[in-house]
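One record is set out below.
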Amino acid sequence: MIGCLFRDFPGTSGGFMDTYVRVILKGGPDGIPRIREVAYGDEIPHVKVACGNGYEHFERTGDHEEFEGEILPVYQWSYRTFIAE
């Protein structure tokens, strides 16, 4: 399993809110939990997960799926970047 930490980008309105919601992540490498908590929920366009020596990037799809009775926004893996040394 790859060691992954969670990071997210602020939404377009700027700054972070104290409210966090769960989202569904699809695609990307094995070892990334598919349910994450992020600030902004539907308003946040990207999710970034630190994983090994890089970051996995996920983009908002506009779709929603049910998980444990809750309707969650879906993010699809889009690309990987490496951590600068």
Summary: Strands lie at 4-8, 20-26, 35-39, 46-51, 54-67, 70-82. The radius of gyration is 13 Å.
